[in-house]
Amino acid sequence: MFKNKILCIYMFLFYNIYAQKPISIDSAWSFAQLHNDKLRSSQLYASYLRKNSQAAYQLPNTIINTQYGQINSFYYDNQFSIQQNLSFPLVYKTQKNFLSVLSKMGVLQTQIDLVELKKMVYRKYYEMVYMQDKLNLLLRLDSTYLSFIEKSNARYISGETDILEKVIAETQRGQLNSQVLQANEDFKALQEEFKWLLNADIYYVPELNTTKLLSKENSELTKINNHPSLLILANEKNASAIQTKIEKNKLIPDFSLAFITMSMKGVGADNVFYNYNTRFNSFQLGLLVPVFNHAQKNKIAASKIYEQYSLQNFETKRKQFVTEYTVAQIKYNKSLQTYNYYNNEALKSAKQILVTANNQFAKGEIDYMQWVFLFNQYITIHSQYIDTILSLNNAIIDLNFFNPKQ
């Protein structure tokens, strides 16, 4: 009964995990680039900034006035005028430069979101690969424990051993069953996160032939200055400097152009009588001077402070970025050394431990408790080997993030 129950649980777990649609990491990454919500929002915002950069030369509304009444004399006259306020060309040029920098920052933010999305997609994908390997290891353990349970039952029935060996074997398998259930829940949580990253309608699992170990991209410290995370900070620094110029430009007077046409019924200064059909035209040129500019000068001073802040922020974030790259390189080297040890030495030792333990147990040279101890050592080494693969993959993913070509 116990055997059938465990078997049903494993069949259910494998159906839920492996009945999902398999996908390769390349296909998953391509899918995420097309459908991820955050990335699409970032692309839309970049499009908005790019379109907005074409609005630098926006002029104020044109003023149109009309008058009717006894403007000049007893007779009723009419007057029409059109007026346009303008800034000097330097103002529009500075505004254009500012909006262009914002547009570049929008593109860079999209690139940042792209490399961060790739980092998350790869991490979740290979965490699922890791969980699959863990589940496979647990299921191999189950078949081994099942075999020993059957042998323990036979020895117990024949009187070769007491009930303690049988109880220990069943307890070990029960604990294993609990680990399988927990691992399955962890796997389902990873699937949820992976589905959200891809913005998919179905659940995906890694392909069974997925390469367990990622390849490391070439990245150099001298090249990370081209990373969008640093480039956007450099552009933010430039934008703050241009913003100061914009505030200074507000102290420059604007000028106003106007055209006025009016009637003047009656006798003019030249002793000639004029009716409504005669129009008198004039042009007007004026300056809009910021006489009360104390508040604007405070804005300029504040903008200069923000400019210093942007410069300091750039230097701080750059040092932090370089430090993170250095730490990622150290973690990669550490993980690679650990992986090489397990791959070249520890796995061979584990295999030898298992072969020796099985032979000695079969010959009666060790009891079941001693075999369990040695078998657990074998399993621990294999489990730690799977952990080292995950650790190395995470280190590679972190290091690849700093490659400006990603």
What would you say this structure looks like, in words?
With 406 residues, the protein is an alpha+beta fold. It has a domain at 234-252 and 295-406. Helices cover 67% and strands 12% of the residues. The chain contains eight helices and eight strands; from the N terminus they run H-E-H-H-E-E-H-H-E-H-E-E-E-E-H-H. A four-stranded antiparallel beta sheet has the order 2-3-5-8, with no helix packed on it. A two-stranded parallel ribbon has the order 1-4. A two-stranded antiparallel ribbon has the order 6-7. Strand 6 and strand 7 (273-274) form a beta hairpin. The longest helix is centred in the first third of the chain and has 70 residues, at 89-158. It is rod-shaped. It starts with a helix and ends in a 6-residue tail after the last helix.
Residues in helix, %: 55-70%
Shape: rod-shaped
Radius of gyration: 38 Å
Q: Please, how many helices? A: 8
Query: Biggest sheet: strands, sense, closure?
Result: 4 strands, antiparallel
Q: Tell how many strands the DSSP assignment holds.
A: 8
**Which strand order do you get reading across the main beta sheet?**
2-3-5-8
- Topology order in helix (H) and strand (E) letters: HEHHEEHHEHEEEEHH
Distance between the termini: 54 Å
Indicate the structural class: alpha+beta
- Which ranges are low-confidence, i.e. pLDDT below 50, for 5 or more consecutive residues? 1-7
Mean pLDDT: 87
Proportion in β-strands: 5-15%
